[in-house]
Amino acid sequence: MAGKTPKSAPSIYTLISPPSQPESLQIFVKKTLLDELVRLCLDALPHKAFGLVGCVDIYHPRSLYPCSTNLRNTPEWKPVFESYGEFYRDPDLGFVISPGEVNVVLQTMDSRGESFGGVFHSHRYLRAQPTVIDIALSSDPGLLSFIISVANPAAPEIGIFRLSGGEYQTVGIVEC
Description:
CATH architecture of the domain at 21-65 and 106-175: 3-Layer(aba) Sandwich
Number of helices: 4
Strand content: 25-35%
CATH topology of the domain at 21-65 and 106-175: Cytidine Deaminase, domain 2
Distance between the termini: 25 Å
CATH class of the domain at 21-65 and 106-175: Alpha Beta
Order of helices and strands: EEHEEHHEHEEEE
Largest sheet: 7 strands, mixed
Number of strands: 9
């Protein structure tokens, strides 16, 4: 076998591609990071996975920072989620990361020479596309939203989006 390059394992996920647009944003993501992202979301089942994404720059995500504090069911946030309809009355749908946890992760990113590039989360019942609540609660149009659908755990989907002004743009994913 000397001199042969081992083949990488086939992907167990599908990447969501944007419609062809010449000025579409593309990011370059290592296969190992995509594999880790899917693994985190599958391992969290039957619950939601969520966290932050550290980047070299907006085009090159490098690290995932799973988070565990979820303020979704606090008196401040529960009515917000439930105002989006019956689907969001389930207390395990949606997430709001505590500011304290975000600050700890941002300090870690800074110490590693990374920038805050986005947020990731799983969709356990829906496709890998932003929901109305994902769009409404997005806080910074400069951040990317990594959505992983594990509605079919045997065939996860990964989509990356820029959320802004009540709309979203699908970001092209170049696997490297």
